[in-house]
Amino acid sequence: MSLKAQLEAIIYAADTPIPLDHITPLVKESILAEAPGIDDAEIKSRIRAALEELITDFSAASHGIEIRQVAGGYRMSTKPEQHDVVRAFAKSLKPPIRLSLPALETLAVVAYKQPVTVPEISEIRGVDSGGVIATLLDRKLITTAGRKAVIGRPILYKTSKEFLLRFGLRDVNELPSMEEFEKLVAESFQSDLPLEESAATVPAETADSSEFETDAEASHSDLSPDLSAEDADEKSETPANSTTE
Length: 245
Known about the structure:
By secondary structure, this protein is an alpha+beta fold. The protein has two domains: 3-78, Orthogonal Bundle (Arc Repressor Mutant, subunit A); 92-242, Arc Repressor Mutant, subunit A (Orthogonal Bundle), CATH 1.10.10.10. Helices cover 47% and strands 12% of the residues. The chain has helices spanning 3-13, 20-34, 40-58, 83-93, 101-113, 118-125, 130-138, 161-167, 178-189, 195-198, 231-236; strands at 65-70, 73-78, 98-99, 116-117, 142-147, 155-159, 212-213. The strands form three sheets. The protein has a three-stranded antiparallel beta sheet. A two-stranded antiparallel sheet has the order 1-2. A two-stranded antiparallel sheet has the order 3-7.
């Protein structure tokens, strides 16, 4: 079996993005069988070259999937232009799974302002965000990033590797601008919201941000995390000035 075929099979079978360091020992023996005596650096170089060829091969219009670098590894995902048909297929399998509006707002603030503290998040959103932070931590979408060097030393939060996986990003530098983010969410998901939720008042900075709807991991190229709603988030939130950290 050729090296490219081996790599394709490994990436296809992997549940999560598989890094180069994990791939190397899996194909090392076959590479050495063809080129005895080469060192580890040359082995990795050959694997990288084969991966680049695979990425190029799958980028052809005749393929509906592609190989992408996500969160430090390689994974297969559907192409953006196939989003509509894949989304329709995913909807036919099970109802949409949603991320609540408060959780979405809080996650967006963390993503664009990180590292950030709960008081800073609450000030931006206008409501206490402690309960939502706990939910996002529980789902491993955010993680702690030390403490801020101010009085009280509040905990800083940032997005996690799981966030990158869910959103199909290589790193946070691939996040769209805030304007693009709000437009994407508004155009894609506003029509899916219940009437009373669509009419709800939200902070001005996130007024266009509705709920995310998952594509059941079908299309990793869209900002569509596979997440469940937490109705308790909305019920537990209180005005920001009513609590302190």
